[in-house]
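Look over this record before class:
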Amino acid sequence: MDGLRERVEATDAVWQWLVLLVGGAIPFVESYGGSAIGVLAGVPFVVAVVASVVGNVVSMVLVVTLGDVLRQRWRAGRPPRQPSARQEKLRRRFDRFGVPGVSLLGQTVLPSQITSGALVAFGADRRQVILWQVISIVVWGLAFGGLAAAGVYAFTE
């Protein structure tokens, strides 16, 4: 771990930022994984969290925007279909928790890109999905970055 930290600290800050930005954009790594990995590797807390959050937000916005466009094109001129039993079950959960609940809690099960794409597919407002996903991404990134920083502090003191 010390060798990794020395390498990271010797690396230019721009590269640290770019690596965490790309890491944050990867599903299942996202803001929480990128923040924690960055802090554990020796990247300053603020840089690790901000870079991971930005990468995660950019990828999520691309998925939401593309998903919304595809959904509109797919449904144009087609009659509505009857939802399957599985789709009905997912719809009930969506109706129960709404966009805020699914956005904040969804990261415990699925990446934000998949969660946000599903919300848009259910017909949720794209702007509301983006807003709540950004809030969720920031909260999770801060939480895991903070936990990693607390762990580093606890084991180095």
